[in-house]
Write a structure and sequence with these properties.
Belongs to the CREC family. This protein has 16 helices and four strands. The protein is an all-alpha fold. It folds into two domains: 46-126 and 187-330, no CATH class; 127-186, no CATH class. A two-stranded antiparallel ribbon has the order 1-2. A two-stranded antiparallel ribbon has the order 3-4. The longest helix is centred in the first third of the chain and has 30 residues, at 90-119. The radius of gyration is 22 Å and the shape is globular.
């Protein structure tokens, strides 16, 4: 069983990844925007905010002036409320979620163009595994010319075990992204599938296989609830970590039982997980819309009014707006 697949809290890893983003820009990102589950099997904790705010997510900073954040949120509300009846229904929220997800897709496509040029030095429109490997190792601090020369002459590369393990995993993904007929050369579209598997049905299947492989303890290629919520031994070191673990388990249990296990038989198959992972699945978007509405629907009318969204702003934007009621009336 691969213990590394399920750490209780991987925020430190994400911070490290964020710090080295420029250095390792050709690496497939750990965090996929607008997708409910990460490639390592973790739930995307920022998913609700990503599909509600889209590109504007960065503007809702904790340090931002609350009045400005309120105004931004009011503008978003008016955009989601397409029939202008001063409330948001599930279909309106579903349309908005699909729109914001597509926005993340387009952003990934633009980034991919830049990254593809970086790894295609001869500009022939194709990247070989060796070309990518050289750029990857250079981003890890290896001398690019020396590595290129050694690869050209089939000489042994002295690479530490951790880097070699990452390379082996990347090579598996490279092969999966190489559409038939396989030539081990990736064009720009295939490179997009390599960096962003959520863009390709074939790569989604590969991603699902990887997640199930890491979580499946009895080898039946399915996931039980206990497998999905299990934590590696020895990750809890203190009470604070225990609290994080408890929340982690609670979130995963809820997602497994209420969303991923579509037929509620206590087992998640590859097909169910693939449907869940697909960010452009309209049924999932509608289900997500209903969940988001339920969180803040205080008057139980199955719609969201502006006051409700402002009151539960932390859920939708990550930013807490104080005195929401008094201020919203002032601004109206």
């Amino acid at each position: 069983m691969d213990v590394y697949a399920r750490p209780a809290n991987n925020s430190a890893l994400k911070e490290k990844a964020a710090d080295s983003k420029d250095e390792n820009e050709i690496l497939p990102p750990d965090h996929l925007n607008g997708v409910k589950m990460e490639m390592d099997g973790h739930l995307n904790k920022e998913f609700h905010q990503e599909v509600f705010l889209g590109k504007e997510m960065e503007e809702f900073d904790e340090d931002s002036e609350p009045r400005k954040n309120r105004k931004k949120l009011m503008v978003i509300f008016s955009k989601v409320d397409i029939n202008n009846d001063k409330k948001i229904g599930a279909k309106e929220m579903q349309r908005w979620i699909m729109e914001k997800t597509d926005e993340h897709f387009q952003e990934a496509v633009e980034e991919n163009k830049m990254h593809f040029r970086a790894v295609d030095p001869d500009g022939d429109g194709h990247v070989s595994w060796d070309e990518y490997k050289i750029k990857f190792l250079a981003s890890k601090g290896f001398n690019e010319k020396e590595i290129a020369e050694k690869i050209k002459n089939n000489e042994e590369l002295k690479i530490d075990e951790e880097t070699q393990e990452v390379l082996d995993n990347l090579k598996d993904r490279w092969y999966q992204a190489d559409n038939p007929p396989p030539d081990l050369l990736l064009n720009e579209e295939e490179f997009l599938s390599f960096l962003h598997p959520e863009h390709s049905r074939g790569m989604l299947k590969f991603m699902v296989k990887e997640i199930i492989r890491d979580l499946d303890q009895d080898g039946d290629k399915k996931l039980t609830l206990s497998e999905f919520i299990s934590l590696p031994v020895g990750t809890v070191e203190n009470q604070q970590a225990q609290d994080i673990d408890d929340d982690w388990v609670k979130d995963r249990r809820k997602e497994f039982e209420e969303v991923i296990d579509a037929n509620h038989d206590g087992i998640v198959t590859m097909e169910e997980l693939e449907e869940y992972m697909d960010p452009m699945n309209e049924y999932n978007a509608l289900n997500e819309a209903k969940q988001m509405i339920a969180v803040a629907d205080e008057n139980q009318n199955h719609h969201l009014e502006l006051e409700e969204i402002l009151k539960y702003s932390e859920y939708f934007t990550g930013s807490k707006l104080m005195d929401y009621a008094r201020n919203v009336h002032e601004e109206f």
